[in-house]
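protein under study:
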Amino acid sequence: MQVFDPLTNQNRPTQVPTSDLLHGPVVVTAEGSWGRSFSPFAVTFTYYELNRAINVTAIEPTAGSFYVDTLVTVRGNGFVDYSGGGGVYCSFPGPYWDPFMLPTNPEYPYQDFTSPATIVSTTEIRCVVPPKGNNSDPIFVEVCLSGHPDSSSVRGRQQHDHFCTASLNRFDYVDYADRFNLTLWNASVIAGPLRGGTELEIYGRFGFVDFLTLAPEFAGLPDGGQPRCVFGHGLGRKGGAPPDLALTSPATLFGATPLQYHLLTELGDNTSAVQSGLYELEYAPGGDVRATSRSTDQAVTYTYYDATFGGVTPRATPLQGGTRFLVRGNNLGQFGVGVQTGALNIYGQPSQVRAYFGYPRCFIGGHHRAVGATLEDCDPLVSGWTQAIGGTSGCQVLRCLAALPMAAVTLALPLLVSLNGQFDSAIFLVNVTYFDQDAVYISTVAPRAAPVTSDVPLRVHGAGFMDLGDMKCVLSTTWGANTPLAGMPRTIYVDANISADARTLICSPDETTRRSALTVNVGITLNGELATLKVAENLPIYFVDLGSIRLSTINPPAGPIRGGTTIVLMASSFTALQACAGAVCPEPPLCLIELRTPGSRPNGSALAYGAAAPARNVTVVGAEIAISPTGVVRYFLEVSLNGYADERTSSTVRLPPSFTW
């Protein structure tokens, strides 16, 4: 510090006394020769204690490139700028550092070995370690809190250590690719989705080569303090040249022989630069993408793939399992399967041949419930395909192998699909349901017979029904006589709806189905899969072609208005009442009597009796008689067969002459 002497009108330097007892701010008062104070305000001077209250505990990374700057994070305690504006510095003297070199020496700028630091907090600062240049290897990183350490004292560099921590935190200059021979020779997986998330283990070697055995000195990977996996193009170039593209993700070393474990959780700020395709894979011990391994000869690469997934059917499986879920999508492929071949050795043979078997898998409920998957409807894969590009690429269908069994009913179990076989790369698709197939029971089906031209719905009654999203009625029959496959088995699926009380399934087969399946057995499947079929035992359904039945006469043709007349109807064919596969239909046939009043068309009241009904309180001039061989009554004006009140077709067969009371 400077002290002004008013007797001589000169400033003379003096030293702040050493304090073994003081620590922290101390008020210093400037006084003249006669004890008079010349200080207009108090001057604060702070004593700080190095290496106990102020110290460095760790640096990251602990190694860097020969050729480029390395950003180092320094962690410790007591980091405060005490320079009054001079700043905080990192200092890294090595064996070449000369403590007696004066700033006037021409070599001084090249032997400075300091850099300004940025204080993040009292426990963390950051500074840049320059390339090796004229420095030695290794170096030890220190922190200086009173400005540049060579300017903090009148004695300059000789008292450098008085203002800097005594650091034992070593930093190595390493040329990993050229001088250290750092090479990756294998990876646990060769592909993952574009969104990231894939766990990856890589294996490497480094050190000087023993030319007698061609064996590396070390098997494993070095730790430079900030190990990272690097994916990109143009990695591992000589002289620290930057790559064309680099994406990094933190890594952790583990194992007695260092193995590198990598969790790619996200791609950071480089996401917009990512396209699907083949990338080089390298390792950066200190996190610097300009200082990585060089594994070009071993062809250690990684493929980012993109895929789309659409509908999933079915969405439920019985407790016994066995269901094969079908997934539709685009650009589906076996990206985790392949062979990578290293460069030829001195004998002309590949130095390595590595096979990978990461086949697609389905996960139903978690990583421990995995089944394989097959791919179908496949086109060639388009290199670099993404959703934005669109079009067709790869396979369009993925079919999971049989679902594993489950002990209890589960309503929402996640279904995930991974194209490289790893759970961490799996994509969630839908929630699926495990249901109790043994609880599904069919008690009856109604009606048991219906005309082929009718829209009468089939109602399947029972218990254990659940709306699983793809319910079907399954009609089992044979092809009709007018088809090339006449007599051959046939299965027809009809969409079904469930009643509010979940005790009835309702399905309406169309007329084409009815005409081609005159006699059918009915079953249901709650998840749309034939393997879960429940059949209505001994309850066949008949579809009757009423157009083939003709009534010819009625006897008697008239009867009293009080009713009670027994009517005998004659058909042109004896099969009129044997309409259900040559037999009487399960429900008894009905005579339908539709009354006529004077000057009117049929009044719409269809009375189902085995004998003529009484016509009370109405003037009756006649009636139309019909039969329903299936036992189904349809009212003309109230419920028509196709929704139109004036339609004259029905589930009955009409008699041309009228019956008269």
User: Anything to note?
Assistant: The chain has one helix and 47 strands. The domain at 438-544 is CATH 2.60.40.10 (Immunoglobulin-like). The longest helix spans residues 511-516.
